[in-house]
Design brief:
single chain, mainly alpha, 78% helix
């Protein structure tokens, strides 16, 4: 009887080993699946966010603001309560613009060229390197195919750690408004920001870079839909017209793509889903940051607070997954990748500073024009460097999209000038 059991175990052993091999293969395939990595990232952030939420609730319920003492009291007060004074609007950009109008025309022109050049160089370099890192191999030789970098979260972490450092140095070396917002409120924008950045990198594995740029340009459509459904907003006729033009242009570009092209130019269903996630997370980030600006803070303080939590979330998730040391090992194996990753982080960090400075000096309309031109140049550069082919119909679609974007900027500037004149007329009537 015992001998028969031994033979039975020996017969089952190969099946068990095969099953273990299948499980290992299954786990490897799951780790390459974007949705599995997405869930792992969310779980990693939850291990930091959930205890933090419970701690905040405990502090509030125990009335720590009145009963707390000791070394930790200032830190807890800053993180949970902040300064309760809350101005009604963010005054920093307006003050900077009023100073800018007093300078000479030549100085203004040089300043505008500086801002435009800084934005173009930073984000065009960032876009080219982003596509290089996510779509090409490193270490390829005549005998070896090379290997691709897979962990988008590590790139997000590198971007955030440098942005956190630069914004921290800027805040410490320059005069800033007295900070009043509870620090924990930055965590919401931070979570959505790192997820939108992750989606942005991850999407390049499934769609072409020109498609990603056009998808970003078409964000106005879901924003208008959400405003109509949720906030019951009403829009001008030109807003509907430009939204339809953007939809038509993007459709022309996507429908002109054929599946016999290079894999990096083909748009897949996974790419569309990830892009939708990017638009969703990015829309939340901007709306939450607008709400935070009700507190008196500068744009660089916002940059510091958001990137502080982004560093905490990403490094915690990377350590839990064991991906931090694996990605660092990839950097040591491929010096070219290390150079690209560091340069991407530098461009991203300084690009954020150029964004804040341009808006403060020239306003949102000028900034939007510069960034719209940057998107057009990014598509052109991507096609030239990485060989993306765009048909005549697709090129017309791209032209329609950017024409609609410029029309939106022009119409919005006309509306703002008209409203400003109406306000000045009312003020003069009141004085009389």
């Amino acid at each position: 009887m015992k001998l028969s059991r031994i033979w039975m175990y020996l017969a089952i052993l190969p099946l068990v080993c095969t099953a273990q091999g299948d499980i290992s293969t299954l786990m490897d395939s799951l780790s390459d699946f974007w949705f599995f990595r997405f869930i792992l990232n969310i779980l990693g952030y939850a291990t930091i966010a959930v205890p933090g939420y419970l701690l905040i609730q405990y502090v509030r319920r125990t009335n720590y603001l009145e009963t707390g003492r000791g070394v930790c009291y200032p830190v807890v007060k800053t993180c949970v309560y902040g300064n309760e004074s809350k101005p009604t609007h963010h005054e920093e950009p307006q003050a900077a613009r009023s100073d800018a109008t007093e300078s000479s025309s030549t100085a203004q022109l040089l300043k505008l060229l500086f801002c435009a050049g800084g934005l173009q160089v930073s984000y065009l370099t960032w876009g080219v390197l982003q596509e290089r890192v996510m779509t090409r191999t490193y270490g390829a030789t005549e005998t070896e195919p090379g290997e691709r970098f897979k962990d988008s979260q590590f790139l997000v972490f590198m971007n955030r750690i440098l942005a956190f450092t630069i914004s921290g140095l800027y805040c410490s070396l320059t005069k800033q408004p007295r900070h009043s917002a509870p620090m924990y409120k930055y965590s919401f924008a931070s979570l959505s920001n790192i997820m939108s950045s992750w989606c942005q990198y991850e999407a390049l594995k499934f769609i072409s870079f020109p498609t990603q740029v056009l998808a970003k340009a078409s964000k106005v459509i879901p924003v208008m839909l959400m405003g109509k459904i949720v906030s019951r907003k009403s829009y001008e006729y030109w807003e509907y017209l430009t939204a339809v033009m953007i939809s038509v242009g993007v459709s022309m570009f996507l429908l002109s793509s054929s599946t016999d092209k290079h894999p990096s130019t083909v748009t897949t269903f996974s790419g569309v889903i990830i892009l939708a996630g990017y638009i969703l997370f990015d829309s939340f980030t901007s709306n939450w940051q607008d709400a935070l600006f009700k507190y008196k803070m500068s744009s660089v303080q916002m940059m510091f607070g958001v990137n502080l939590f982004s560093c905490l979330f990403t490094i915690g998730s990377l350590l839990e997954q064991g991906a931090l040391f694996e990605s660092a090992s990839f950097m040591f194996r491929h010096k070219e990748f290390a150079f690209h990753a560091v340069l991407i982080s530098i461009c991203s960090a300084f690009g954020q500073l150029f964004i804040f400075y341009t808006i403060s000096q020239f306003g949102a309309a000028v900034f939007t024009i510069i960034m719209t031109l940057r998107q057009a140049f990014a598509i052109l550069l991507s096609c030239l460097i990485y060989g993306h082919t765009v048909s005549i119909v697709g090129g017309l679609g791209v032209a329609v999209v950017f024409l609609a974007l410029f029309l939106r900027v022009y119409a919005r500037s006309r509306m703002s000038k008209r409203n400003r004149r109406a306000t000045q007329s009312e003020a003069q009537i009141q004085k009389v």
